[in-house]
User: What shape does this take?
Amino acid sequence: MVRTLKVVVQLLPAALLVVTAAAQDVEPEAVVADTVVYPVWEHDLSATLSGSQAGYKRWTEGGINSLAATSQVLGTFVRTSDSWLQTYELRLGIGILKQDTLAVRKAEDALRLKGQVSYTGDGKFHSFSPTVAVGLRTQFAPGFNYTKNPFEDGRNPPVKVSDFFSPATFTQSLGMGFHSDFTFSQRLGIAAKETVILIERFRPVYGQVPSESVRLQLGIESHTEVDREVFSNVQVKSTLGLFAAFNQDELPDALWENAVLMKVNDWLSTNLEVVALYDRDISDAVQIKEVFSVGISIVIM
Assistant: This one.
């Protein structure tokens, strides 16, 4: 872990210098005569419903009847005042899949909440801000392993391995943050991470003993985020979170979330999501999730 922390500490200042230098090359915007009245709230809340269906009857080339549907709610709320910047993010998603004679299966399940408060006073605090951040990551519905039984108790797959708040991950961090025009942000600080598993029999799957409902870890957290429009109506958001626990001499936990949103028009959109998760408490391998959907998008507010 010491080697990893040294690498993180050495690379972050260099990255921040590059971003700062790039920002200095941009011509300053014209001064707006109108006086801004604080606080200012900005919000973006939308819902998406997407699905696909395939049916075959006496089709010589073969195929499997399938039906899939996914719904998602995405929200971002930003409050700006004279010296403070508050950002809150919400993501709710659930999806199902039905293939031929197989039972209905869960295809997507996400409950994500994030909150961040930064002091953005005059001078150096305008870009480099003391920041407090919290987060929650869990799911709504039960999840099953359809390929193997991780409990090794003789049962044949599928076996239930997760449920609401089993697991759930809470994070809290206190440190310094850097942001550039809301397209790039970097946060580094001291953090706490709690892994909560309410259902006792699931705990060994996530590296906890049956009597341990909450695993508390203290360490250093790095959070990097890029959110920008790369082409017309094509939005890319990439978030990399690293957590290195003080009591573990190994590579840090990593969660890399990437999303590409392509708007065809005001109501039709295409989404591509790729997520990579590495947590040695759960598995030695990198876990990958990929979701591609085309659906109807409705702006709520």
